[in-house]
């Protein structure tokens, strides 16, 4: 097979590659930054829009500019339904927007996920910084747009509820974020037959962890999600838990992922994502038993 023709000598190629590669990386990082900015706006605009819908209908946005829209009002049934409504909205919004941007930027929309991807080497430090900035600014823009589009005061802040302490809230945010980050690492960073369907896994994971955490912490699971509305509504004195908790969660998920890679997890139960009929268990002989 013939190699593509090139008029450049091997020495010229070698000298030009680093420069071309450097500019290509910067260009790609900046494009990814723009994509994450737009994607984060869309993801949070629709997700936070659901929170605002609940807050408006339950008139919970009358308690002040720093009110937490994720703490529903009304009787127990109404509260439970509002938690489910908000959790479903976030999960579906992430699935929808991630499906659109997945082949473009990886559909991160979360600086804690970006941190984990940087730590495992999936993205470089420069891209991590750029997309994290884009995600934080995108969250502010989404909150500002939502305030302009809906009546009444913005009421989409996260907040501790049901008597949850700061320590409890911190660890709830840590474990829920760890679950979301792990879904990204195992479904998107790892390449296998389920990788093309990773956005569906992201959405379901976010939905599930928010079913647990929304009533207690507001279900941030994302520092940008907590930071954007707070810039419009105001910061609670415990806002720091939405930075520390998700960051610890990203580190926990990364550590577990690295452990799985170290023990060659794919060899523990081989052929799990195989579609080859020959990999099916041989009932007669039991040859395929683990």
Automatic annotation (TrEMBL):
Predominant subcellular localization, coarse grouping: membrane
Keywords: Membrane, Transmembrane, Transmembrane helix, Transport
Protein localization: Membrane
Membrane topology (UniProt): Multi-pass membrane protein
Gene3D superfamilies from the UniProt entry: Glycerol uptake facilitator protein
Biased composition (Low complexity): 1-19
Transmembrane segments: 30-51, 83-105, 126-149, 169-188, 200-220, 240-260
GO molecular-function terms, A-Z: water channel activity
Entry's family note: Belongs to the MIP/aquaporin (TC 1.A.8) family.
Protein name (database record): Aquaporin
Lineage of the species this protein comes from: Eukaryota, Fungi, Dikarya, Basidiomycota, Agaricomycotina
């Amino acid at each position: 097979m013939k190699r593509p023709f090139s008029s450049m000598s091997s020495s010229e190629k070698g000298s030009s590659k680093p420069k071309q590669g450097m500019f290509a990386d910067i260009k790609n990082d900046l494009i990814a930054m723009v994509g994450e900015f737009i994607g984060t706006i869309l993801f949070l605009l629709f997700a936070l829009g659901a929170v605002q819908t609940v807050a408006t209908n339950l008139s919970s946005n009358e308690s002040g500019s720093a009110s937490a829209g994720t703490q529903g009002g009304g009787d127990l049934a109404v509260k439970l339904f509002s938690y489910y409504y908000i959790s479903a909205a976030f999960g579906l919004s992430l699935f929808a927007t991630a499906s659109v941007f997945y082949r473009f930027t990886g559909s991160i929309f979360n600086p804690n996920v970006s941190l984990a991807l940087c730590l495992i080497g999936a993205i470089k430090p420069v891209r991590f910084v750029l997309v994290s900035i884009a995600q934080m600014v995108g969250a502010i823009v989404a909150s500002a747009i939502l305030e302009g589009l809906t009546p009444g005061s913005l009421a989409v802040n996260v907040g501790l509820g049901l008597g949850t302490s700061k320590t409890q809230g911190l660890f709830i945010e840590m474990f829920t974020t760890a679950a979301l980050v792990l879904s990204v690492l195992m479904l998107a960073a790892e390449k296998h037959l389920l990788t093309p369907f990773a956005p569906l896994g992201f959405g379901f994971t976010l939905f599930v962890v928010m079913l647990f955490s929304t009533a207690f912490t507001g279900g941030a699971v994302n520092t940008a999600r907590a930071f954007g509305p707070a810039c419009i509504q105001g910061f609670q004195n415990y806002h720091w838990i939405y930075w520390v908790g998700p960051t610890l969660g990203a580190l926990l998920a990364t550590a577990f992922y690295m452990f799985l890679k170290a023990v060659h997890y794919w060899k523990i139960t081989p052929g799990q994502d195989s579609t080859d009929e020959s990999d099916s268990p041989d009932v007669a002989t039991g040859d395929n038993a683990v």
